[in-house]
Amino acid sequence: MAEPGVDTCTRSSVITARAAATFEPVGRSVATARAFVRDTLQGWGYTDVVDDAVVLTSELVTNAVIHAGTAADVLCLRTENGVRIEVADRYPEREVPLQGSSRSLTDPDSENGRGLLLCAALASRWGVEYSPTRKQVWFQLDLPERPVGTRSAGPVLPTELLPVADDRVRVAVAQIDRHGAITAWNEDAEHLFGYAADQVVGKPLGDLAAWPHTPGIGTGIAEALRLSRWEGSYGIRGTDGRVIPVYASHLRVRDTNGEPSTVCLLVRDYERAVLQSPPRTPVDSSNESRSTDPFEVFIGSPAPDDLDGLLQRTVERARDMLDGDAAFLLLATDDETELEVRATTGLPSARQRFARVPVEAAGTGRYSSARMPAVHEDLSAVPGSVPLLNGTGMRSVVTVPLKVEGRLTGSLGVAAEAAGRYSNEEALRLQFAADRIALAVESARLGELERLRRGSLSFLVEASDLLAGTLDRDQTLALMAQMTVPTLATWCAVYTIADPTSEPYLSYVLHEDEERIDGLKALLAKIPPPEPVPSPGARVWTAPADVAHRAALRTSMRELGLASTPLSSGIGTTLATAAAVGGETVVLPLVARNRVIGMLTLGRPTDDHFRQEILELAEDLSRRAALALDNARLYSERMAISQSLQRSLLPPGLPQIPGVEVDVIYRAAGEGNEVGGDFYDLFPINDDAYGFAIGDVCGTGPEAAAVTGLARHALRLLAREGLGGPAVLERLNAAILDEGARSRFLTLLYGELWPQEDGSALLKVVCAGHPLPLRLRQDGTVEPAAEPQPLLGVMDDLELYEETVTLAPGDVLLCVTDGVTERREGSRMLGDDGLTEVLTTCTGLTAGAVTARIMRAVERFAAEPPSDDMAILAMRVPEPHTD
């Protein structure tokens, strides 16, 4: 039963679309229901009735979820001439009106029941329907009457006031799938941007778009493509690397299978009138209620919650308010000496974004300062008075300051292509608007700066930890680039300078798209490196962009002569490289210990300037990176010297001994392979005899290296003088003691070997404090081949003796340093017994196989890497071959 006096006509028109949703009985459901209805009607194109529908839905859902306490079912039905919305609750109780009752339908002062009053006031038709389990309120909103086919219309304008367009207006149409990749690309898109369809289909739109967005702040292109509708300005990088400003209208649709995609219509920015939706109602401040917030009047509601969105909305509203062709907004630096371009609309290029201009101009007169309102009736009469508008075709401009508590925080300007468009009256109107928004802009700017500073601090802490974690030069270069791209720039290059007389060398190149690294590296290799200037701060380097643009132009001209030939891979690479470096490039010096050791180069493909906060962060990073790189250089030099000295302390090669197999494995422990520690040697004494030694100097470093070098060279010299083993070691002991405080004690196994005619080998050995050599016989038994004697470098008087050992065919003599026997795993140690056990399994193996098995057993004994140097020397008398 319907309420008396209410039209119960329901579906007189054909339903062309429907959308339904259910909302739980909680307070937040009201806002969710409003958003559902707004998005649905905007998606259907019924923007004329959106506001009324949202108001009515809000009241009816409030009655259901708050007052009735039940879930609310909302159904939207689209017809040819309007929309019907039904809101149902699960509370069927109703009043039966008494005939003749003078009581109104509901009390206007009562919160409960206002939805019916609003339906009566706003809806074309409405009604209430009851069932045993639910109550449903519906309302019909008809679209406004317009001439057939008219969506919106404007007044008749004189020809000279019509928007400027090319002879043929081209509308690029691109379709983007749910992942942001291009699936369709029409002929006008090919003409506007230079890419053939097969070049871009399958690639993300973000690879081509120069989105006016600071990372981490505001709406990005990925978010914009997911919105049901989006309209605004951004740039598309053409094949020549230049950014083409466009105005775009995005519509989110779905196919018959439910798969969503986004249709993008794009025109040149100065032809935006083709796509731009006119405001539903013009802003007329004279008709606004006194209680209306002037900020909301100018910006609109809801106001953007991010700085970039607020600034972009501001310039667009300012341009529309004064019927201008372009508008711009600049924010002041903390010291109020410069203004940074943060938002523009209607200008033919976004090149000026983040560019800086002085607050006080060089000239005199009323145009010289941004602190006062100014009207430029004709810019051609005062060339360069507004540098931002140079070359844009703008003739007249009005600028006003943004101030908070008397402090300059920014500047807002509106420009027109015709001269004499603005007077003091327009300046006052714009100043009034600027005063309304200045505080909100400053608050949003401070919030953004705080977020950037927190992010910068976190970034620098992480960067410092990473750079401090390595002393490898190549890894330091890679970390510098990886921390820079893509956080601070789209690509970077690191030049290094070996010494003050060397030219800068291109050491590392990185681009956020790995496929462009080789082309970028090749392009930079053809350009003379930037001048190594030690002064701090970033400076602009134009060479990469100039060379890239010239290369792209030459390539395009050649392609025009071969229009029927498809693009070759070389041409495609050239154009991609040009696009990669087509924007601004800056160079920061890498200064460490008062010397320029290189340059960090940052670049981006868009025409945007680097914002000052990013450059300051990059400068902080470059100081840390320079010190890390110089530390890595010093460490590399030290390691090179250390390793060269280590190699000089070891024999260059092993001599071939007739009838004896010899193999050595040497492993220096510790990062960088410190000099000193263990050593070995094998050398010919004369035609029939060979000397061998394996030793371990106490400690590491230069002092230990000195003793190692002394021992190895003294052994060779004394042995070749014809001295026996004990005499050789006694004289070496005296030489070590002569070093005084620089001396180190030394454990040494020294021996002399004579191959015999019967196939055996005779050895005479002296073991001075060293782990005993082990002899492996053919039958698998293992026994020490010498007795322990005093080590060297401790006592003056040593009584050493040599022992004779005969190695029969198949026997092995194994000599090791204590790094092998003292290999530990917790409280366990390999020891002499463990080494003996491993050696017993080596019967029949060659000398090389014996050393390899011993080393493998030592490495597997513990999970941790070895902490001491290790040397393994094996000598084996092979068995005679039998036919």
TrEMBL record:
Domain PAS stretches: 176-203
SUPFAM superfamilies: GAF domain-like, PP2C-like, PYP-like sensor domain (PAS domain)
Superkingdom per UniProt: Bacteria
Pfam families: GAF_2, GAF_3, HATPase_c_2, PAS_4, SpoIIE
Keywords of this entry: Hydrolase
NCBIfam families found in the cross-reference section: sensory_box (TIGR00229)
Stated name of the protein: SpoIIE family protein phosphatase
Source organism: Streptomyces lavendulocolor
